Amino acid sequence: MSEKIIEIENLSKLYRLGDIGTGSLKNDVQRWWAKLRGKEDPFMKVGAENDRSKKGQSDYVWSLKDISFSINKGDALGIIGKNGAGKSTLLKLLSRVTAPTQGQIKIKGRVASLLEVGTGFHPDLTGLENIFLNGAIMGMTKSEIKAKLEEIVEFSGIAAYIDTPIKRYSTGMRVRLGFAVAAHLDSEILIVDEVLAVGDSVFQKKCIDKMTKVRSEGRTILFVSHQLSAVKSLCKTGVVLENGKLRFQGDIDGALAYYATTNNSIKGQELKLGDLDRHQSVGQIKFERIVFENYPVNFGETIKFKLILQTQDHETLFSDIDMAVNINDRNKSCIVHCANKFLGKNFSHTDDQMEYHFEIENNLKPGYYYMTLFLRSKDVIQDWIEDQIILEIQGSNPYGYHSNGLIQGNVLPGFNISQVNSKVLL
Ligand SMILES: Nc1ncnc2c1ncn2[C@@H]1O[C@H](COP(=O)(O)OP(=O)(O)OP(=O)(O)O)[C@@H](O)[C@H]1O
């Protein structure tokens, strides 16, 4: 069994928005005194609103709320979420830069982190002095740091400025040095927040390569980036945060698919498919959108959706269409397969834009599933989106927690597909 290196239990962090006084000097002094002793703010209103899409009533925001999960030794974990989801807060808590409001974190091993630009560096000290300061904070001896020094300076690419105080550095230079220090010092865990947002593409590639090497050495990585392709290439597992809550934990493909589905995304019931990764396909006809009649789909309710396809090549008629939709379980095993072949229906693509309407009997237990969309015309694969759309079946499970194996999908449930012409209106 894999060894757990980080365990996070019911972790919550409440922030005050802006540093406004409490309204009385006595209360302000009480708050200051509590802070000084590392205690909770006595005026904190626990239970404050957290929906960032609405203007809250309170001065407080739960930056993280009741997060529990664990990370195995050697894992490379991608932390994904929209702006303000709580990603940086989680990394700050794990790096002990700030303390949790509630819950606890157990870490076995030393942590090296590159957080927001500037955190961990003293502005008046030179680059070199800061390298020693960071190493010392991590419990390394002077000679241990010296042994790594050349590599760190070389990687950062700022050798000429190494004796200049950090406050004179540009943002890019600070990030370069910060990453070089975090990645090269001996630590069991490397935490990196948005290093790719700053720096040119050469430096970005260098960072990814270095993290891949760190991972291959068996060290654990926690990585936050809005560049999802970088997250995908580096990480094996992923978590998705949304408004301070943990929404998904699993393999990185699942996390990215969940994020794509919820973020891109299902505005109302609709998901645009244009930006999703494709499997080897020609792309003269492409899946453009999926529109559910109801999303999330309720337990037991027929899954109804339409796929809207757009032709890139307006002249050609695409005949002998093989259209298939799979619903796969969390292990990517197919549990529902619907294809026109099995209905004895022959489709031809006769117009710029065509719709295919699906109705699938639903005996899936509540949870998340992956959908695969496939389209072939005359043995040429036109479009193939594999396991990137998350299908959520919601509702309580009538068998309670012990239903595994009782409610499952059939490979061929009752289903129907019909083709509808819909002319482009433009
Ligand atoms: N020091 C702070 N004081 C007050 N509120 C804070 C503080 N730090 C974070 N927050 C709030 O906590 C929430 C989560 O912020 P956080 O920076 O962790 O999100 P994030 O997912 O890293 O976002 P981004 O992708 O934009 O960096 C936000 O609503 C933010 O305003």
What does this entry show, briefly?
GO terms for molecular function: ATP binding. With 426 residues, the protein is of the alpha+beta class. The chain has helices spanning 25-36, 87-94, 127-137, 142-156, 171-184, 201-216, 228-234, 252-263, and strands at 4-16, 60-72, 76-81, 102-107, 111-114, 189-193, 220-224, 237-242, 245-251, 270-272, 285-292, 297-298, 303-311, 318-328, 334-339, 347-349, 353-360, 367-377, 380-394, 415-421.
Can you tell me about this structure?
The structure is a single chain. The longest helix has 16 residues, at 201-216. The strands form four sheets. The protein has a six-stranded mixed beta sheet, with helices on both faces. Strands 12, 14, 15, 16, 18 and 19 form a six-stranded mixed beta sheet that branches. It is built from eight helices and 20 strands. The model is unreliable at 401-407 (pLDDT under 50). The chain has two domains: 70-259, Rossmann fold, CATH 3.40.50.300; 267-421, Coagulation Factor XIII, Chain A, domain 1 (Distorted Sandwich). Helix 6 (201-216) links the parallel strand 6 and strand 7. The chain is elongated, with a radius of gyration of 26 Å. Helix 3 (127-137) crosses helix 4 and helix 4 (142-156) packs across helix 5. With 426 residues, it is α+β, with helices and mostly antiparallel strands. The chain is 22% helix and 35% strand. It binds adenosine-5'-triphosphate. The site of adenosine-5'-triphosphate has 13 residues, from strand 2 and helix 2. Keywords: ATP-binding, Nucleotide-binding, Transport. InterPro entries: AAA+_ATPase, ABC_transporter-like_ATP-bd, ABC_transpr_TagH-like, Bact_Polysacc_Export_ATP-bd, P-loop_NTPase, Wzt_C.
